[in-house]
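Lab notebook page, bench 4
Experiment: in silico fold of construct C2
Operator: M.H.
Input chain length: 765 residues
Purpose: comparison with the prior construct
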Amino acid sequence: MSEALVNVKGMGLMRIAQQSQPQATAGIQSRVNKQNAFDDRVQGVLSGIGNQIADVAINDEGGLNNPAQLKAALDDKYKEVRAFGDAITQGLTPLQKAAFLTMGFDKIGDITGLAADAEMYFTDPESRTWANAALSGVGAVGSVATISPSVAAILPMVKRNAEALSDTAQAARRSDMGVGKSGRRVGTTGQYIGAPEGMNTPEALDAMRQDYMDQVVAGIDGRDWYFDSSKWIDEVSPDAMEQWTADSLAITSQGTGVDANLGFAVKGINQTAAGEAVDTGRFPDRASVQIDQARAGDRTGVGPKREPFADNLSMGWNPEMAKHPVHDIWQGRAFGYKHAPTKKYPEGKPWDAGFSAQQHAFMDEEMQYVVDNLNANKVGGHSDWDMANTQAAAWSGAKIRAGDIKPSEAASHYGTFAPKYEARATYEQAPGVGTGHLPGLAEENFDLRLNYENDPNASWKNNSGQDRLYSSAGMLNSPTNEMVGAYTPAGGTLEINPGKVAYPLTQTKGTITDSSGGLLLKADENLLNTIESSRAFIDTQNAGAWHRIIPASQVNAGEMSSAVVNLGRNPTPEEMAQFSAFADAKGMFAVDSGNGQIAMINDSYSDIGGSRTGTLMGKDLKGEFGKELAAIAPDATSIERAKIQSGYIDYQADLQNEVLPGFAGSGRATQRFLDQLENNPTIMKNIEPELRAKAGENFARDAARAAETGDPVREDVQRARQILRDEGLSGLKAALMRKELLPAVAAALVVPFLSESDDSPPEMI
């Protein structure tokens, strides 16, 4: 009876008996079932098993295609698996080795689950962690507690071997990038190989080391730069996007400061989210391709300087990645690298180039010496110096020495600059006044409406505090904050409601001298408009809205026709009502940004706001206008003019018309919602699961309130939510085409308007 080794994706190598084709197929399915059961107990160890079997040469009839050729092709892989097994069981007796490699499996002759993990380790070096190795050893037993004492005694030895293998893999990666041992000195000159020019005596080497450590001390406030940056990346990145964010930042870091680097990364991330081609970075032809590759999990294009940078940025979710220091131009300057002297630079121009493999290796070796010295002497009171925080401190010290940053700026990481890139997407969940949906809610006091807003079963926030829609779209977004909403519908009265502010990171067109200066890029504007339109529809709002305060460095003073009140705290509902009344009288909108700022947005379409310029706003703030504004909140720290871009998606006419007698359920609001989404198919696809989920949550929440209080709900609103929940956007569109959103009560009202022909549909607006 012949056997073949078959590679099953997610499970490694399997022996398949060749008795018959049906038996072979059944054997594969049996193994899939076993592995699915194991995956339920140890979730995540063998990711993506499901029932998807790939890379198996099985024809449409269930038989193996050319088993002999398949076996030959997989023999080399099997040797790798055996080599891995030998590596992690080094030092074990034959009996101990057999116990470890076969534990948890019912037949000695099987290729164990370790083989599956081993394949993962060979093909994905980042998976070579002790946690994974331990789970490989546990296998299918399902619980560490079930391991026998004899096997438990083996695990520490396996741990040491696995860690050694991981270190070897890391070194191999560095070697593949051209980084190896520097060697020591050139015999004829004494020059240390890979060192700065003139480093040719032990005394010179000692002086270089001391100077480097002096810069570490000078920049010690920046030692946690990688940790803080990584924590921030984890905080703002959607689930499973953390590594791509770190890689995107690393790829676009070349030749940029931290602020500009963040902007380049945000631009590329949002272009991807909007379904546009990536075009970002100082060197977009190269960076854009590499960002796309990294998105697909291919990090080979990151390079010997940027890969360690990305790895260090990943320490928050994978500390084992932070193994190597980053050797950029500032690290080079900290070590004393300079260009050859010239007339202009008699002592040599400051280093601004890349590094050779030998230079990388020299700095790797010297960094280990420095780290050991810092820890031995507890420099700065710290005994936990490592490659990452040492290089971060030296980087800050070198920039301080060069006058590039102030000592107070040493700790400024990506999160420090994030507010500059944040749009403010303001929303309320209480249905709009005049929509006819839960009209009694508007009559309740603020605290009761706050309870409705904060219902944990219908929140727009995910478990990380981020906005569900912006995260599902693939955008970086800071945690959502509370705010006080002020809104006056056309022909209505002022509404003050509790609300929230989402903070998606966006990018602008940069510093431009014309009126488009600082305005959002097309991709970013599409994302904001589509998401806030969708949110307003799901929540039955009269409008969806967002705004972005444009940095003063990106606009001319004459364009700053709006203002920002820096309150430093959340306004009270009473204060927000005063800000709004003041704004209405001055041709403006008052918006609580949720971060201690009140945006006074100029309404350029109003009679007053239409003629307001930045120059006039500057004069107004110095006169009575400014005094009146300051009197609303005397503790405000400052009031500044600004250019503010805003978006407004108006549903009021659609919803108000729908509640006129005979016209509820017209579908106008639904059509507007679908039209906006269908203009952006990538965004639509990405956010649809969250839209469906939230529609279902709103349906249940509002039905429960109606049953408890008697406050009526709109039948068409609830029906649209129900269809979206159960059938998705395609189902909602189909229902709209069938006029299914027209509720029974409305149908009865429009019957008199039908023509005498039975074939004529009711007139819909």
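Observations: The longest helix spans residues 681-709. Residues 507 and 746 are 46 Å apart (CA to CA).
Next step: discuss at group meeting.
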